[in-house]
Amino acid sequence: MANLTTPSRRKFVKKSLAVSAGAVAFPQVLTRDARSSGGTAQDRKDYDVVEEVAKYRKIDAYCTANPDMELADKLGIGRMYVGNPMRWLDWTPDEFRQANDEMIDLMKKHPGRIIGQISVNPHFSRESLEEIDRCVDQGMVGSRLYYQAKINDPIYYPVIEKLADLNMIIFIHGEAQIGVGGYRMKYDVGRPATISVPEDFLEAAQRYPEAMFQFAHIGGGGDWEYMCKAFREQSNIFVDVGGSNNEEGMVEFAVHCLGEDRVLFGTDNSYYQGVGKVICADLSDRQKQKIFFDNYNALLKKGGYHVD
After folding, report:
1. What percentage of the chain's residues is helix, strand, coil (to nearest 5)?
2. What's the whole-model pTM score?
3. What is the helix (H) or strand (E) element at residue 213, kind and residue range?
C-alpha cells in the first residue's frame, strides 16, 4: 500500500518540473526519484528522467481531440484513445455522426497510434445504436460520452447494454466538486443538471456488473479523494488520472482506494502532467507499468481490442 504522506510537496514539484523540462531537452537531470533521496551524489547526478520515462510502455486512456503527436512521441505514448463529445447537449444524429467521422479521419492519419472512441446522444436511441455499429465497423473502440443525460438515466440503458455486449469500455465525463449535482453545497458553477456524479456511476455499475465504466480524469480539478472513496467497493468502475492537476498523493490515493489494477493513465492532453504524476508517484515500477499500460490493455483484451 502506498505511503500517502510521501513524497514531500517540495520533492514532488521539483521532480514534476524535471519531467516537464528534461523530457524535451536535457539528457541528464540532477535529481533522483523521490523515494531514493538518500542515494549518493553520483546516483543523483546520473538519474536520467528521459530514460525513466522511456522504460514504461504507455496507452493514453483519455486523449482529447487534436492530439499532439510530437509530444506523444517524446514521452513514449504508443497508443492514444481519442474522442470529441464536448459540443452541446442537444446533439442531433447528423451532428454526432459528423463528430465520429472526424475521429475516423484522425485514425486514418495515424494508423495504429490513434483509436477513435464513439460519441452518441442517448436521447436518439435507435440512431445511437446504429451509429455504434457503424463506428465499430470503422475500427473505433469504446465510448466517449458527455452530459446529454446522467449515466444512470434509463435512456442510457440501451447504449450501456450495447457497449457491454461488445466488451467495450464505457467512458463518460463525471464530476464531484462543490456546486455540481447537489454535491455537498448547492453553489451554481454552471454545470448542467444532467452531469453524472459518482453516485450515478455507482447505480449504473451496480445495475450492469458485466459492463466496464471509466470515470474520467480525476486530475481534472474535482474532489479526487471523494471520487476514489466512492468507487472503492465497485470493481467495474475504473478511473484515469488525466487532467492538468498534479496534487500530491493523488495517484497513490487512487491505488490505495481502488487497487493497482483499476487506475489508468490518461493525459486529457496535459502530456507532461499526465506522465509526470505517475513517474513521481510513490509506487513500484510494476505498479507504474500497470497504470501506464497493462490495466487498460487488460480491459481492451476482454473484447479482443488489445495491443500485442
Report:
1. 45, 10, 45
2. 0.85
3. strand 212-215
